[in-house]
Every structure is written in structure tokens, then in C-alpha cells.
Design goal:
- The protein contains 2 helices and 4 strands.
- The protein is α+β, with helices and mostly antiparallel strands.
- A 4-stranded mixed beta sheet has the order 3-2-1-4, with helices on one face.
- The protein has a domain of 42 residues.
- Strand 2 and strand 3 form a beta hairpin.
Length: 75
């Protein structure tokens, strides 16, 4: 058997292109504190912009799926 070497070249993805990855497919959820001190589940777009808040993870996930996106939990 001959030993074949392959070379992989990576190109750096520009920051703005990286931020838009998943923007049309994924919304992130994580616990947040509202300005009035109440706890909620924040819904964020793939680029990190706050979109909405929900009272529970289940409701947040349902809202996300209603908009044809997949929810992802941020730890």
C-alpha cells in the first residue's frame, strides 16, 4: 500500500460571515433576568441579538419552532 498524503487548506471566514452562520436555521435560548428582576428564558438570533423572552424553555422552544427555526440551548 502506498501512503498518500493529502493537504487541506483552510480559508478564514470573515467575522460578519461567521456571525451569520445559522441565522436562518437556529435561535438560541438561555436564562435571563428581566429589568424588573423577573427570571425568563431569552430567545436570541444566531448573531446574538435578543429577539424575545418567554416564561419557560418549553414555550421559548415552541415560539422558535413556530418560526421554522431550531432551538439551541446556550449554557
Amino acid at each position: 500500500m502506498e501512503n498518500e498524503q493529502t493537504t487541506t487548506t483552510f480559508t478564514r471566514l470573515p467575522d460578519d460571515a461567521f456571525l451569520s452562520l445559522g441565522a436562518q436555521q437556529i435561535a438560541y435560548v438561555k436564562p435571563i433576568n428581566l429589568p424588573d428582576g423577573a427570571h425568563a428564558i431569552g430567545i436570541f438570533s444566531a448573531d446574538g441579538k435578543a429577539v424575545a423572552a418567554a416564561p419557560s424553555v418549553e414555550i421559548a422552544q415552541a415560539l422558535i419552532r413556530q418560526h421554522d427555526l431550531e432551538p439551541a440551548l446556550v449554557h
